[in-house]
């Protein structure tokens, strides 16, 4: 798996790998569920710096992360999304649920 995570000031940061498909989405769900329980993080930041592909499983994973963050009084943010990822998020209506920032630092400053 190419994705990794870290916790910064009650924010779970998930660095998404090159592809966010069914297999990666399931792994990210498991990682985020476990880390949210362990760390008491409220917000989830999804870093798409190296991601070139996302399918409907990725959209579903983001919706699920939104629900988890919302239960904790937190938010989901997307950073460093390229044009194909932004277009899919726009078409799927994800921008009604998540915030987008140009950089990780900008997201951390606004949470």
Automatic annotation (TrEMBL):
<comment type="similarity">
    <text>Belongs to the anti-sigma-factor antagonist family.</text>
</comment>
<dbReference type="InterPro" id="IPR002645">
    <property type="entry name" value="STAS_dom"/>
</dbReference>
<protein>
    <recommendedName>
        <fullName>Anti-sigma factor antagonist</fullName>
    </recommendedName>
</protein>
<dbReference type="Pfam" id="PF01740">
    <property type="entry name" value="STAS"/>
</dbReference>
<dbReference type="InterPro" id="IPR036513">
    <property type="entry name" value="STAS_dom_sf"/>
</dbReference>
<dbReference type="InterPro" id="IPR003658">
    <property type="entry name" value="Anti-sigma_ant"/>
</dbReference>
<dbReference type="GO" id="GO:0043856">
    <property type="term" value="F:anti-sigma factor antagonist activity"/>
</dbReference>
<feature type="domain" description="STAS">
    <location>
        <begin position="12"/>
        <end position="111"/>
    </location>
</feature>
């Amino acid at each position: 798996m190419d994705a990794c995570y870290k916790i910064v000031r009650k924010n779970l940061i998930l660095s998404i790998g090159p592809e966010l498909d069914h297999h990666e989405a399931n792994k990210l769900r498991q990682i985020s569920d476990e880390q949210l329980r362990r760390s008491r993080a409220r917000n989830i930041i999804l870093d798409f710096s190296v991601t070139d592909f996302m399918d409907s499983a990725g959209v579903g994973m983001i919706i699920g992360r939104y629900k988890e963050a919302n239960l904790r009084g937190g938010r989901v943010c997307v950073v460093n999304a390229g044009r194909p990822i932004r277009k899919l998020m726009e078409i799927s209506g994800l921008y009604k649920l998540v915030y987008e920032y140009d950089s990780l630092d900008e997201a951390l400053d606004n949470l």
